[in-house]
Design brief:
Chain B: It is found in: Nucleus, Nuclear pore complex. The complex is a heterotrimer of chains A (308), B (747) and C (372). Chain A has no helices and 24 strands. Chain A is mainly beta and 308 residues long. Chain A is globular, with a radius of gyration of 19 Å. Chain B is mainly α and 747 residues long. A 3-stranded antiparallel sheet of chain B has the order 2-3-4. In chain B, strand 2 and strand 3 form a beta hairpin. In chain B, helix 21 packs parallel to helix 23. In chain C, 50% of the residues are buried. With 372 residues, chain C is mostly beta strands. Chain C has one domain: YVTN repeat-like/Quinoprotein amine dehydrogenase (Methylamine Dehydrogenase, Chain H). Chain C has a 5-stranded mixed sheet, with no helix packed on it. Chain C starts with 6 loop residues before the first strand and ends with a strand. The chains are: A mainly beta (308), B mainly alpha (747), C mainly beta (372). The interface between B and C is large, with 43 and 51 residues. Strand 1 of chain A pairs antiparallel with strand 4 of chain B, so a sheet runs across the interface.
Chain lengths: 308, 747, 372
C-alpha cells in the first residue's frame, strides 16, 4: 500500500474534504473559515493549491462538488447557518483568492447547517441540506446557467413528532447527516441520520414530487454520526451504512418490495470500540471504510457477492 | 501554538514531525496490500525503529478476524490502517475534538484519503490546545498496472479471438474446436512468457518486479496445467503423462546443481559412493530426463582391464549392471498410439527381471540400482520416497506408474501422494492441487488470490470448453462467475489513463452486468482535449449509453462556456440536445444586443450552420441576425418578412418581443412613405396582439429594465425616439399603417 | 490496384516498445528513394500520463527469392519524449521532424545520425539516431493558464528551404510561424469562433480550414477574414476531422467526418461538395490520396479499419427533383482493410509508395501494416 501525504496548510481544524467528480481535484474546509482547492499535477505527482479563500463568517463544516456538466461548482455549509455556492472563474489567476466567486447564498436554515450533498446529476442541479433545526431542505437551480438563482423546492421536517419550535433544539446535541441514493433507476431518495432519534430515515420523492419519510433504519443506541448510501452497480438490493456514537458501524440492506423497501440490518461491527465518526463506500459499493475515535481507519469487504 | 498536547505530554517527541511526515518506507507493508482469506496475511510487518519508538499502532497481532457468526454472513474484516503520528491511546481521540476521517476516491475503488478532522466547529468548543494535523493522506491499495500495459494489450487481442471463436465455422467440429482452444491457450501462454522475458530484461529489479515475475510464473504454470488437463481431450499420440512431465520440467525445473553439490561431486574420489550423485540421478529419472540420466550412469562406468582379479570381476559385474540399466531406460516404450499393452508388459517384466538379478556385495550400490529400477517400473513407494515435493511425486507417479492414464483418471492416483506430502498453503499450490483433482471451481477460487487477470481469462476460456461433460453432471459455478471475474479485472483498467479503452472493451463482453459498470465509469474518464472526448463518446455510442453520452457532451459544452467560447458551447449543447441551456445562451446574446444595440454574435453564428432541424433558439438568433443584415443592405421587403417570422416564432423571451415590435416601427414608416407594401393587415393585427402580450403584468419588471437599457443607445443609433414602455409608438404606427392600407386598398 | 481483395488483413506488428497508443505515423518522404536503403518513419503516442514518446523507426524488406512474400523487419532507431499528445507530425527537409502537441505547442526535432559509418548503404541496420528538440513554442491557449490543443499544421508550399508553418487549434486561431525564427508570428485571431480541427495549405494564397461544426473555410493568409465559408448540407454540423489534397489537382480536397464519411470538394465550387462515400461507421481520423493512383482515397477510422475508396468510377446519380437529396456516391467502390482481432481505433496511416508499405497506428499500442 502506498501512502502519499500532503499538507493542506489550514490554520485550524479541518472539517471536511471532498474529491471532485474525476478525482483530480480536492477541496478542504476548516474552522479557519477558508476553503482550499487543490489540483493533482500528473507530472510532479503532487497536489498543488489552486486557490484558497475565506468562504464563511464561521467555521466551514461541509463541502461538496457538483457534477462537471454544471461547471466547476462547489457548495459549502457552515456554522454561520448559510450555504454558499461557488463557481470557478477561469479568467482569474490561480492563488489570487478571487478564482472562486460566490454565486449564491442560501440562508433559510435556522441552525448551523450540518451536511450538504448534491443530488446525482440525472436530477439536474439539486442540493440537499440539513441543519441543526432538524429540517431537510432541497434546493434546485432551475436554470443551470444561472447559478445565482436557487429555488427552495422542499422543506421537510426530519422529526415528524416535533413539528414545532426550532429554538428548543440545542445545536450541541443534535447531529445530522445525509446521503443521496446514487442510483439512477430509482425514485430520488435521501437517507438522513436523525441525530437524537438514534436512527436514520429514508425520504423518498414520489411521482407528485412530494417528499415523504419512508423507512426507518434503527438499532443504534446513540447518535448517528454519518450515513452513506452505496452505489448500486446492478445489484438487486441497496446498501446503506451508518456510523454511530454507540461505537458501532451498521450496514442495512434494502430489498425492494411493492410498497418500498424491506430493511434488514445485515452487519454490525463493534471493532472500533469508540465513537465512529465517518463511513464511506467506494465507487463500486464493494468496500466500506469507517473511521473513528480509536484512531484507526477500517476497510470492510463483503464476503459473498450475491449476484455474481 | 503549542505542539505538545497537554494531556499527552509523556509521549511525543516530534517537532517538525507534525507538518512533515516522517520518511517512512511503506513498501514493507507486504501483507496489507491485498484482501486475502488466510490468516497469515493479517500480520503487518514492523518497520523502522522510529515507529517502534513512537509505538505507532500497526494493527498487529489481531490474528484471525473472520466473522464466524452466522448473523453477519457477509462481511469480513480487513486491513488496518495506521496513523503514524500519534501513539495509540484508546482515549486520545475520544477526549479531544479531533478524530480520523476517510473518503474514498471517486473513481478508483481502492484509493482513499485519510485526514484528521475536527468534530465540532471551533465556535462550539472551549479553547483547547491540540496538535494540529493538517495532513491529508492519499492511500492506495492497488499495485501499479502500468508495467503490464503491453501484456494487457496483447492479452486483449487474444481474448477477442477467443470471443469470436464460437462463431467461426471450425467451432462446430469437435476436434477443430479443441485445436482452436489449444491455439488460443498457447497464445495466452506466449504472451505471459513474453512479459516475463521483458521483466527479466530490466536491469534493476526491485521487490515489485520480482513479485511480478513470480506471479507470472505461477500464472503460466496454472494455465499450462489447465490446458493439459482440460483443453486436450481427444485421442492423440501425446499422452497426458508426457505432457505433465514436460510441464513439470518447464514450470518447476530441476535447478542447476549448487556450488556445494558441484564441489562435492568434483572432489569425490568415487562417484558411486557419493550421496549427492545418487540423489541427483534419482531426480533425473523421476523427471524423465533420460539423456542426462544415462550420461550420469555412464560416468560411473569404470574402465577395467580384463583380468581374473576378483575385485575387477566385481567391477565388470557392476559395469554390466549399469549397462543393462541404461539399456532398460533406452528401451522404455515411446508413447505412441499404436503402443500396445504388450510392449509395456514386456518392458516391465524386463525391468523386474533385471531388478531381481542385481545382487552385489556393495549393498549401497545394490539398493540404489534396485531403487532406480523400481522407480522405472512405477513402484509408488519408491517414487514417492525419492520425490522432494508433492508435484514432483505426483507427476513422476503418473509418468512411471500410469503412463497411459487419462485426465479423468488422475484423481484416483493422487491418494498416496497426499498422504505422504502436504501441500503448501500458498494459493498457487492449492490451485494446482485442485486442478489435478479436477475441481476447477475450487482451483479458480484460489486463483483469486494470485491475480485477477489469471482468474478472469482462465474462467473465460474454460467457459468455452465442454467442461460440463467431463465432470459428471455437477453444475459448475464457472459460468456464473465469469462476468464477475471479468468485471473485477477490468475495473481498475477503466480509470487507468491509458488502458481505459481496453477496459471498456472487456465490459462489452459482459452481457449482464457490463453495462451498469460502463454507465458508472464512462462519465468518470477525464478529458482535456476534443480528441479524447470523441473517443469516449464512441464507447457510449457503441453501447447505447445515451444518458452518459449526453452528460459528457454537456460537460464539454460547459467547459467552453466557462472560457466564453460560445460557438463551441452552442455546438456541443446542440449535440447534447440541451434546449434549456441553449435558450439561456441565446438570451445572453439578446441581452447583449439590448445593452449595446450591436449584434455581437455574428461570428459565433458564422461557425454554426443551421437548418430546420437545429435548435430553435439558435435558429432564432440566426434569423434575427439576418434581419439586421437585410436592413443594412436595404432589402426592406425581405427584412420585413424575416421580422414577422421572428415575432411569430415566439421563441425569444417575451420581453424581447417588444424589441421586435420596436423594429417594426421604422419599417412601417418606410412602407408608408415610399408606398411599399411591407406588411399585410394580418401582420398589423398580430403586432397589436403581441403588444398586449408584452405589456403583461407578469413580465413588467424585466420589460421595464429592458426598455431602460435600450433607451440609452437607441436614439444615438437610429435617430428615432420610438422607445417607450407603453409601446405607444408601435400602436400609433400600426393605426397609421392600417389606415394607409385601407386607403390604398380602396383606391 | 483494382485487384484489392475485399478484406485485406493488416499484419499486426507486435512490438514491445511502441511507447503507448499511437496517434500519428509518418514516413520520411523527404529523401529521394535512391539515396538510402533505410525507410524511415516516426510514430508519436498519446494518452500516456507522464510523457508521450516519439519513436524513429526503420523498416527493411528482406526478400527470400522469387515468388515469396518479402518479409519486413522493423527496428527502433531513436526515441525521445514528447510533452502532451502528438496531434500532428511531419518530416521536413534537413532532417527535421515537426510535431504539434495537445498542450498547444509546436515542436521541431533534429534527427542526428550518430552512426559514424561512412558508407550509407552498407550500414548494417544498427544505425542510431538521436532526436534533439530544437524548438518548442506554445502557440495556442485559451487563457494564460489554460492550454488549447494544437490540432494540426500545414506548411506553405514551395517554402521548403525556410518553412513557413501555419498551425490551428482549439482556440480558433491561425498562427503562422517560421521554424527557427522566434521573433514574429503572424496571428489571425478569431479565424473561427469554434475549434479548428484541420488545415491545408494547397496554394500560397489559399489556406483551407475545417472546424468542429463541419464547415470549411478558405483564407487568404494575408487577410483576417475568410474568403469563403461552406458546409456539406448532407452532413450538416457533423465535425470534420481531417483534410487532404489531391496530389496533382490542387483544387480538389478530401475531408473525413465524424460519422465515418468522406467527402470530396472542389474548391472552385464550394457550395456543394462533389462526391460522398461512407467507408466507415465511426469517426474518420485521417484521409489521404494514393500518390500515384490518384482516385484512390485512404482513410482510417475509430472503428478500427482502414478504408480505400476508389472514386474513379464515380457517376453521380441525381434524383429527379430535389438536388439537395441527390444520392451521390452510389457507384464508388470501397475496400476495407482491417485486422482480425483489432477492435481498437486506428488513429493514423501513411503510405510509402516505393516500398508499397501502408502502416497504421492505433490505440492497441501496436503498429499494423500491410503491403499494397
Amino acid at each position: 500500500m502506498s501512502v502519499q501525504p500532503f499538507d493542506s496548510l489550514h490554520e485550524d481544524l479541518i472539517h471536511d474534504v471532498a474529491y471532485d467528480f474525476y478525482g483530480k481535484r480536492f477541496v478542504t474546509c476548516s474552522s479557519d473559515q477558508k476553503l482550499k482547492v487543490w489540483e493533482f499535477n500528473q507530472e510532479t505527482n503532487t497536489w498543488e493549491q489552486v486557490d484558497s479563500w475565506k468562504a464563511h463568517e464561521c467555521s466551514v463544516l461541509k463541502v461538496a462538488w457538483a457534477h462537471p456538466e454544471f461547471g466547476q461548482v462547489i457548495a459549502s455549509c457552515s456554522f454561520d447557518r448559510s450555504i454558499r455556492i461557488w463557481e470557478e472563474q477561469e479568467h482569474e489567476s490561480k492563488n489570487s483568492g478571487k478564482r472562486w466567486m460566490e454565486k449564491a447564498r442560501l440562508i433559510d436554515a435556522k441552525g448551523s447547517v450540518q451536511d450538504i450533498a448534491f443530488a446525482p446529476n440525472f436530477m439536474g442541479l439539486r442540493l440537499a441540506s440539513i441543519a441543526a433545526d432538524g429540517v431537510l431542505r432541497i434546493y434546485e437551480a432551475l436554470e443551470v446557467s444561472d447559478l445565482t438563482q436557487w429555488t427552495l423546492m422542499d422543506e421537510i421536517n426530519v422529526h415528524s413528532s416535533r413539528n414545532a419550535n426550532p429554538s428548543t433544539f440545542k445545536d450541541a446535541e443534535e447531529s445530522y447527516c445525509l446521503s443521496w441514493c446514487p442510483s439512477r433507476y430509482q425514485f430520488p431518495m435521501i437517507v438522513v441520520g436523525c441525530g437524537k432519534e438514534n436512527s436514520a430515515k429514508i425520504f423518498r420523492c414520489d411521482q407528485n414530487s412530494k417528499w415523504r419519510s419512508c423507512e426507518i433504519l434503527d438499532g443504534h443506541q446513540d447518535l448517528v454520526h454519518d450515513v452513506d448510501w452505496a452505489p448500486n452497480m446492478g445489484r438487486s438490493y441497496q446498501l446503506i451504512a451508518t456510523a454511530s456514537k454507540d461505537t458501532r458501524v451498521r450496514i442495512y440492506k434494502l430489498t425492494g418490495n411493492k410498497d418500498g423497501f424491506k430493511v434488514d440490518a445485515v452487519a454490525e461491527f463493534l471493532d472500533h470500540d469508540r465513537e465512529v465518526w465517518k463511513v464511506k463506500w467506494n465507487v463500486t459499493g464493494t468496500i466500506l471504510s469507517s473511521a473513528g475515535d480509536d484512531g484507526k481507519v477500517r476497510l470492510w469487504k463483503g464476503k459473498n457477492n450475491i449476484d455474481y | 501554538m503549542s505542539l505538545f498536547p497537554e494531556h499527552n505530554s509523556n509521549i511525543l517527541q516530534f517537532t517538525p514531525f507534525t507538518f512533515e511526515p516522517p520518511p517512512v518506507d511503506y513498501s514493507q507493508f507486504e501483507g496489507i496490500s491485498s484482501f486475502p482469506s488466510s490468516t497469515q496475511f493479517y500480520e503487518a510487518s514492523v518497520i523502522t525503529e522510529a515507529f517502534l519508538k513512537e509505538d505507532a499502532y500497526l494493527g498487529k497481532g489481531k490474528g484471525k478476524q473472520v466473522e464466524e457468526n452466522d448473523l453477519k454472513p457477509e462481511t469480513r474484516k480487513q486491513t488496518i490502517f495506521l496513523n503514524p503520528l500519534f501513539k495509540y491511546d484508546s482515549n486520545f481521540w475520544s477526549t479531544s475534538n479531533q478524530s480520523t476521517g476517510v473518503k474514498f476516491h471517486p473513481t478508483r475503488s481502492k484509493d482513499f484519503a485519510c485526514y484528521v478532522f475536527g468534530k465540532e466547529p471551533k465556535e462550539k468548543v472551549k479553547k483547547e490546545s491540540f496538535t494540529l494535523d493538517t495532513q491529508i493522506y492519499n492511500c492506495s491499495l492497488v499495485h501499479d498496472i502500468d508495467s503490464r500495459r503491453v501484456f494487457y494489450n496483447e492479452a486483449f487481442s487474444i481474448f477477442r479471438e477467443a470471443a469470436r471463436a464460437p462463431f467461426s465455422k471450425e467451432w462446430r467440429e469437435k476436434s477443430m474446436r479443441e485445436k482452436l482452444l489449444c491455439d488460443i491457450s498457447w497464445n495466452y501462454v506466449n504472451a505471459i512468457v513474453n512479459h516475463i522475458k521483458s521483466l527479466q530484461e530490466i536491469p534493476i529489479k526491485d521487490k515489485q518486479i520480482q513479485n511480478e515475475i513470480s506471479t507470472f510464473r505461477d500464472m503460466m504454470a496454472i494455465w499450462e496445467l489447465c490446458r493439459i488437463m482440460y483443453f486436450i481431450k481427444s485421442e492423440r499420440y501425446q499422452r497426458l503423462s508426457t505432457d505433465l512431465l514436460t510441464w513439470l520440467n518447464e514450470c518447476y525445473p530441476l535447478g542447476a546443481l549448487t556450488e556445494e553439490e558441484l564441489n562435492e561431486l568434483r572432489d569425490s574420489p568415487n562417484l558411486r559412493n557419493t550421496v549427492t550423485f545418487w540423489s541427483r540421478l534419482y531426480k533425473l529419472i523421476l523427471r524423465g530426463l533420460f539423456p542426462q540420466a544415462i550420461n550420469f550412469l555412464r560416468s560411473i562406468i569404470m574402465a577395467v582391464e580384463i583380468t581374473s582379479d576378483q575385485i575387477i570381476n566385481r567391477e565388470i559385474i557392476i559395469n554390466d549392471i549399469i549397462q543393462s540399466v541404461i539399456k532398460c531406460i533406452k528401451s522404455r516404450p515411446k508413447m505412441s498410439s499404436y503402443d500396445t499393452g504388450l510392449a509395456w508388459r514386456n518392458w516391465l517384466s524386463q525391468c523386474s527381471q533385471l531388478q531381481k538379478s542385481i545382487i552385489l556385495e556393495n549393498k549401497f550400490l545394490e539398493e540404489n540400482f534396485i531403487m532406480i529400477l523400481k522407480i522405472l517400473s512405477g513402484d509408488p513407494d519408491a517414487i514417492l520416497a525419492k520425490s522432494s515435493s508433492w508435484l514432483e511425486g505426483l507427476v513422476a507417479l503418473v509418468y512411471h506408474k500410469y503412463p497411459k492414464c487419462e485426465t479423468s483418471d488422475v484423481r484416483s492416483t493422487l491418494g498416496p501422494v497426499f498422504i505422504r506430502f502436504s501441500v503448501h498453503p500458498d494459493p498457487t499450490s492449492q490451485a494446482l492441487k485442485r486442478i489435478f483433482y479436477q475441481r476447477i471451481d475450487d482451483a479458480l477460487s484460489y486463483c483469486k488470490h494470485i491475480d485477477p487477470w489469471l482468474l478472469s481469462h482462465l474462467t473465460d476460456l474454460l467457459c468455452k470448453t465442454d467442461l460440463d461433460e467431463t465432470i459428471g453432471g455437477k453444475s459448475l459455478l464457472l459460468h456464473q462467475h465469469r462476468e464477475g471475474y471479468l468485471i473485477k479485472f477490468a475495473e481498475p483498467l477503466l480509470t487507468h489513463s491509458t488502458l481505459w479503452q481496453v477496459g471498456f472493451k472487456y465490459l462489452e463482453h459482459c452481457e449482464k452486468f457490463g453495462k451498469v459498470f460502463m454507465e458508472e465509469f464512462v462519465g468518470k474518464i477525464p478529458f482535456d482535449n476534443e480528441r479524447k472526448f470523441e473517443k469516449i463518446l464512441k464507447i457510449c455510442e457503441d453501447n447505447g449509453l445515451k444518458f452518459d453520452e449526453k452528460c459528457i457532451i454537456t460537460t464539454m459544452g460547459t467547459k467552453y462556456m466557462q472560457i466564453k467560447r460560445y460557438a463551441s458551447t452552442i455546438i456541443y449543447y446542440m449535440r447534447a440536445g440541451k434546449d434549456e441551456s441553449l435558450k439561456a445562451i441565446c438570451n445572453i446574446f439578446l441581452t447583449q444586443y439590448v445593452e449595446s444595440g450591436k449584434i455581437m454574435f455574428s461570428e459565433v453564428l458564422d461557425s454554426i450552420p443551421v437548418d430546420k432541424n437545429s435548435n430553435e433558439s439558435v435558429n432564432f438568433l440566426s434569423r434575427y441576425r439576418l434581419y439586421h443584415s437585410l436592413i443594412q443592405d436595404e432589402f426592406y421587403v425581405q427584412a420585413a418578412q424575416v421580422l414577422v417570422e421572428c415575432l411569430r416564432s415566439e421563441i425569444s423571451p417575451k420581453e424581447f418581443w417588444g424589441v421586435l415590435l420596436f423594429h417594426t416601427v421604422p419599417l412601417m414608416k418606410l412602407g408608408r412613405r415610399k408606398g411599399i407594401k411591407l406588411f399585410e393587415k394580418i401582420h398589423i393585427d398580430e403586432f397589436i396582439y403581441y403588444c398586449s402580450q408584452v405589456l403583461d403584468k407578469r413580465i413588467e419588471d424585466s420589460w421595464l429594465k429592458l426598455v431602460q437599457r435600450m433607451k440609452r443607445w437607441h436614439y444615438k443609433e437610429t435617430g428615432y425616439f420610438d422607445i417607450s414602455e407603453d409601446l405607444n409608438p408601435v400602436k400609433i404606427e400600426c393605426e397609421r399603417y392600417k389606415k394607409n392600407l385601407e386607403k390604398n386598398h380602396s383606391v | 490496384m483494382d485487384n484489392l481483395s475485399s478484406t485485406y488483413d493488416l499484419l499486426g506488428l507486435s512490438t514491445k516498445s511502441t511507447g503507448g497508443k499511437i496517434s500519428k505515423v509518418r514516413f520520411d518522404n523527404t529523401k529521394q528513394e535512391f539515396e538510402s536503403n533505410e525507410v524511415l518513419f516516426a510514430t508519436g503516442s498519446w494518452d500516456t500520463p507522464k510523457e508521450n514518446t516519439l519513436l524513429l523507426w526503420n523498416v527493411e524488406q528482406v526478400s527470400f527469392g522469387l515468388g515469396e512474400q518479402p518479409s519486413l523487419t522493423f527496428s527502433v532507431l531513436g526515441k525521445t519524449t514528447h510533452e502532451g499528445d502528438v496531434t500532428d507530425m511531419r518530416f521536413i527537409g534537413d532532417n527535421i521532424l515537426l510535431t504539434s502537441s495537445s498542450n498547444g505547442s509546436l515542436n521541431a526535432f533534429q534527427i542526428i545520425n550518430t552512426n559514424t559509418s561512412d558508407f550509407m548503404d552498407q550500414s548494417v541496420g544498427t544505425s542510431n539516431y538521436q532526436l534533439q528538440m530544437i524548438m518548442n513554442r506554445r502557440l495556442h491557449s485559451f487563457t494564460d493558464t489554460k492550454n488549447a490543443s494544437l490540432n494540426s499544421f500545414a506548411i506553405k508550399p514551395h517554402s521548403i528551404n525556410d518553412p513557413l508553418v501555419a498551425t490551428v487549434g482549439e482556440d480558433g486561431r491561425i498562427v503562422i510561424v517560421r521554424i527557427e525564427d522566434s521573433v514574429k508570428d503572424h496571428v489571425i485571431e478569431d479565424a473561427d469562433a469554434s475549434s479548428i480541427k484541420a488545415i491545408l495549405w494547397p496554394r500560397s494564397n489559399e489556406i483551407i480550414l475545417a472546424n468542429g461544426c463541419g464547415q470549411l473555410r478558405i483564407f487568404d493568409p494575408r487577410e483576417n477574414k475568410p474568403t469563403t465559408i461552406c458546409h456539406d448540407p448532407i452532413n450538416i454540423r457533423v465535425p470534420i476531422n481531417c483534410l487532404a489534397f489531391h496530389p496533382s489537382k490542387v483544387h480538389k480536397v478530401a475531408s473525413g467526418n465524424n460519422k465515418g464519411g468522406v467527402t470530396i470538394w472542389d474548391t472552385r465550387k464550394l457550395t456543394e461538395p462533389e462526391k460522398h462515400a461512407q467507408p466507415h461507421n465511426s469517426r474518420v481520423w485521417e484521409v489521404f490520396y494514393h500518390p500515384y493512383y490518384q482516385e484512390l482515397l485512404f482513410s482510417c477510422s475509430e472503428d478500427g479499419t482502414i478504408g480505400a475508396v476508389n472514386f474513379a468510377d464515380f457517376t453521380p446519380t441525381f434524383s429527379s427533383q430535389d438536388s439537395m437529396n441527390a444520392v451521390k456516391g452510389q457507384n464508388v467502390t470501397i475496400r476495407k482493410i482491417g485486422f482480425k482481432s483489432n477492435e481498437l481505433p486506428i488513429n493514423s496511416i501513411d503510405y510509402h509508395p516505393h516500398s508499397k508499405l501502408l502502416i497504421s497506428g492505433g490505440d492497441n499500442e501496436n503498429l499494423l501494416y500491410t503491403l499494397i
